[in-house]
Design goal:
This protein has helices at about 5-10, 20-25, 40-50, 75-85, 90-95, 150-165, 230-235, 245-260; strands at about 55, 70-75, 110-115, 120-125, 130-140, 185-190, 200-205, 220, 225, 265-270, 275, 290, 290-295, 300-305, 310, 315, 320-330, 335-340. By secondary structure, it is α+β, with helices and mostly antiparallel strands. The chain has 4 domains: about 35-165, DD-peptidase/beta-lactamase superfamily (Beta-lactamase, 3-Layer(aba) Sandwich), CATH 3.40.710.10; about 180-215, no CATH class; about 220-260, no CATH class; about 265-340, Immunoglobulin-like, CATH 2.60.40.
Length: about 350
């Protein structure tokens, strides 16, 4: 896990245009901040349809006798099948694209779109078991397209290109997760744990040994009991309603049980030993971490201290060095962690 591991996989998938270091790309690499060619993109997705195996592109009309690089695996067949299953799910597209999209075909197809920063250009890829199509839409002078995204720009072009290609090449079925050894399991749509009676559940594929074993404990007495590390996100996104007295008691009971019956107050963010690196070029206002602790109603308000200095915000701006983070409740409970922050690498 991490930018370096992802970069190795992408190199294995044929993205030779990614010539910079993992530190240069950072976590944004997972969102596509690296410049690649359309041919690399198409061949990478074709590799997923080939079960996670990269094969060199062969230009048959030019130098047909030239040696071709050997095939190589860049992800497992199971991982490739799961990715394609996600990208081929028309229901999963509805929240982002709506009910009717350019990605509805009379055959099974996995589809992925991308839009560059400031809407400069966009692309779309369609994958079937028999062929892969990739298209790019943009201005050759690099001028933005004024709000045109992958679904509205490259999407219609991909739709037409896929239908034309299917007239000559049979689409055929994509690799099935079941053929790769995956099985389906009912999970909670919110927590990802095994669904219980109070959950909004759904079916998901899991490779051997990866299915959740724990029953969902987020839903109790008609309320959602958020783990401490997700409370801030839930509050910011309007997912936490006014807590009833029952919900408060339930939350406290669950936390007490999780602590083995004790009332151990502890910091959940940042964790002891965490190491952070300030991203290069990032505005210091956004290079922050959340300050969160696992509490019960009896703990009262939490006061935060960094290196002995009081912090009044729920997030702290990263500063290079080794720091001691201390939290103190109104009831007198305390916890302390030590973290390290490094400057951007140049």
């Amino acid at each position: 896990i991490g930018a370096a591991s992802l970069l190795r996989v992408l190199h294995g998938a044929g993205f030779s245009s990614l010539t910079r270091s993992a530190e240069f790309y950072g976590l944004g690499l997972a969102l596509g901040n690296g410049d690649v060619t359309l041919l690399e993109l198409a061949n990478g997705y074709r590799g997923l349809a080939a079960g996670g195996v990269w094969r060199a592109v062969e230009w048959r009309a030019v130098d047909p006798g030239r040696p071709i690089a050997e095939d190589r695996r860049f992800v497992s067949a199971g991982a490739a099948a799961l990715v394609l299953d996600i990208l081929a799910d028309p229901t999963a597209r509805i929240p982002g694209f709506g009910i009717e999209t350019p990605f509805d075909f009379p055959f099974q197809a996995a589809v992925k779109t991308g839009t560059s920063h400031h809407f400069t250009d966009n692309w779309a890829v369609g994958v079937t078991g028999g062929f892969t199509v990739a298209v790019w839409v943009g201005n050759f002078d690099g001028q933005p397209m004024r709000g045109v995204s992958g679904v509205t720009g490259a999407g219609p072009l991909l739709h037409r290109a896929m239908l034309v290609t299917a007239r000559r090449y049979a689409p055929s079925e994509l690799p099935s997760p079941r053929a790769a050894g995956a099985t389906r399991a009912r999970i909670c749509a919110l927590s990802g744990l095994r669904a219980t009676a109070g959950c909004a559940d759904l079916d998901e594929w899991f490779l051997p040994g990866t299915a959740p074993r724990q029953d969902c404990d987020w839903h109790r007495d008609g309320a959602v009991v958020w783990p401490a590390e997700y409370v801030e996100w839930a509050e910011q996104n309007g997912r936490i309603e006014a807590a009833s007295e029952t919900a408060v008691r339930t939350t406290a009971a669950i936390k007490t049980a999780a602590r083995g019956g004790g009332a151990q107050f502890q910091i959940v963010s940042p964790r002891a030993g965490d190491r952070y690196e300030i991203p290069p070029g990032m505005d210091p206002r956004y290079a922050t971490i959340a300050l969160r602790a696992s509490t019960t109603p009896g703990d009262g308000a939490v006061r935060w201290f960094i290196d002995g200095r009081r912090v009044f915000e729920s997030r702290w701006a990263l500063m290079p060095g080794t720091h001691v983070v201390r939290a103190v409740t109104r009831s007198g409970a305390t916890d302390e962690t030590r973290i390290e922050v490094t400057s951007p690498r140049r």
